[in-house]
Amino acid sequence: MFKTSYLREVRKEKYEQSDVFNEELEDSESSAGIAAIQGWESLQDLNGRFARYINRARVLEQRNAVFRKQLETLQRMEEASSLQEAFMQQTESNRQRIRELASERAKLERQLKDACRMLDDFTSK
Questions:
Q1: Which candidate, 114, 94, 96, places its Cα nearest to that of 106?
Q2: Residues 16-26 pLDDT 10s
Q3: pLDDT at position 83, please?
Q4: Whole-angstrom distance, CA of residue 33 vs CA of residue 41
Q5: How confident is the model over 24-79, as pLDDT tens digits?
Q6: What is the pLDDT of residue 124?
Q7: According to the 3-state scheme, what is the secondary structure of the chain?
Q8: For residue range 78-105, what is the model confidence (pLDDT) as tens digits?
Q9: E strands, the chain, where?
Q10: In terms of Cα–Cα distance, which of 40, 44, 62 is closest to 52?
């Protein structure tokens, strides 16, 4: 009988200790659970922020690509504009040269007519 009552007492102590331990464990587990939940929420928040950052970076990269294309187009237009100006200047200088040559031709034609008249006058005398 002593042995069975001793075993009961040991079991009772183990049971009581396990309840106390379980309460402490539950308290620590519940605080650990809260910390884990908070950590999880924090990770989800960070993940959401990171996803927004990645999306923002993609949007900015797309905008950058659009701006680069616009810049290239404007540079080409500027080059074309400067080419057009150069052609216009060249055309104007060519027209001026044509006017100068036309006036010189007219002068030479008058001189030719005068020389022909003088030749006719000289041969007729």
A1: 114
A2: 665 544 555 55
A3: 77
A4: 12
A5: 555 555 676 777 788 888 889 999 999 999 999 999 999 999 999 999 988 888 88
A6: 86
A7: CHHHHHHHHHHHHHHHHHHHHHHHHHHHHHHHHHHHHHHHHHHHHHHHHHHHHHHHHHHHHHHHHHHHHHHHHHHHHHHHHHHHHHHHHHHHHHHHHHHHHHHHHHHHHHHHHHHHHHHHHHHHC
A8: 887 777 888 888 999 999 999 999 999 9
A9: none
A10: 44
In this predicted structure, what is the pLDDT of residue 100? 95
Sequence-separated (6 or more) residues with CB below 8 Å from residue 118: none
One-letter identity of residue 38: Q
Tokens of 1: 């009988």
Go through 3-23 and write b for each residue having 16 or more CB atoms within 10 A of its CB, e for each that does not: eeeeeeeeeeeeeeeeeeeee
Q: Which amino acid is at 46?
A: L
Tokens of 73: 């187009």
Give Cα 58 distance to the centre of its chain: 9
Distance between alpha carbon 10 and the CA centroid of its chain, in Å? 75
| Torsion from C-alpha of 89, 94, 100, 102, nearest 10 degrees | -140
Structure-token pair, residue 70: 């616009």
